[in-house]
Amino acid sequence: MTTQVHRIEVEPSLDAPVPDRISHMFEEKLDALSQMMAEHMAAPFPPGLRGLSIEGRDMVLLDADSYAYAAVVLEGPLDEQRRAGLIRLTAAFEKVLPAIGDEYGAKYYTHVRGMAVLAAEIETLRGE
Known about the structure:
The chain is mainly alpha-helical and 128 residues long. Helices cover 68% and strands 3% of the residues. The termini are far apart. A two-stranded antiparallel sheet has the order 1-2.
């Protein structure tokens, strides 16, 4: 008589060891970042913000830098210089977002900020 063993995949529970929960949370955040980046690429850039500088930040560069940092974070850990740049970038949104005048532009850059913040969260988890 042979015995067959079936492996069943289950979601980590609160009873799972902490490293397993962190690993699962890390993977979920990577998936969410990838999804946010895809959504970002599908959204048209706000035409009224092209060539505009708000609070000393060129809006096209803010957008491009945010996406670039997110893409690098998906590939692996940032070096110290890039990690510091990502932190400065996320802080820039605190000044820029309230100064955006049109509704679509504010919504667009709120999403961009979310992408940058999630990338920073992923980097923090990597450091733990």
